[in-house]
Specification:
single chain; alpha+beta; 2 domains; 3 helices; rod-shaped
Length: 199
């Protein structure tokens, strides 16, 4: 655009055009460049936050897989030990099963089993409930040893918690075989079903 009364040579016009272009570029650059830099910084911050969130998500996924694998492995080991727990749907039934195992061990050992006193904490809410049976056995020394061996060999987690042995008849003649009376307390765990556990 030419101003009235102003005559410019072609060289002046080119210089004016270059000057206007440079000034426009400076004005536009002065506003656009900071905005572009701000956008670039925001984009970098957002990308870093997204990368961090992705890393956390990957760690969480690996942790969940590890926990699931660990839980599956523990359940498998626990199920493998099923034969070590007492049979029975309730602690009382488990006590009866333990009393039956003691009677069977007594028969195999050739020992007479007297009274069997079952003691169970049926109010317990824990996963494993201890079941105890107090028993009286009468027999010779070999029979008592065989009884104890038979009881502890029946299941992995059956144990004799208390034992006392006396002569059944202290006044018996010396030429008679010695008869012993054993009092023992046998304990074994009963495992509650997982769905029965109260919080």
């Amino acid at each position: 655009m030419m101003l009235p009364g102003l005559s410019l040579t072609p060289r002046d016009r080119r210089a004016l055009l270059v000057g206007v272009t440079v000034m426009g570029a400076i004005v536009v650059g002065g506003r656009a460049l900071p905005a572009w830099r701000h956008w670039q910084a925001t984009a970098r911050t957002d990308a870093a936050a997204a990368t961090l969130e992705l890393a956390r998500s990957r760690v969480d996924i690996l942790g969940q897989r590890s926990a699931r694998d660990s839980l599956a492995a523990r359940k498998k080991r626990l199920d493998a030990l099923h034969s070590a727990w007492l049979d029975g749907d309730t602690p009382a039934a488990a006590g009866a099963a333990l009393a039956g195992a003691i009677s069977t061990a007594g028969q195999h050992a050739g020992v007479g089993i007297g009274a069997l006193d079952i003691r169970v904490d049926s109010a317990s809410a824990s996963v494993f409930v201890p079941v105890r049976v107090h028993a009286t056995a009468v027999g010779d020394i070999q029979g008592i040893v065989n009884l104890l061996t038979g009881i502890e060999a029946d299941r992995a987690y059956v144990s004799v918690r208390a034992l006392s042995i006396d002569a059944a008849d202290p006044a018996a003649a010396a030429n008679r075989p010695e008869v012993l009376r054993a009092e023992l307390t046998v304990e074994a765990p009963w495992r509650r079903a997982i769905q029965e556990i109260r919080p």
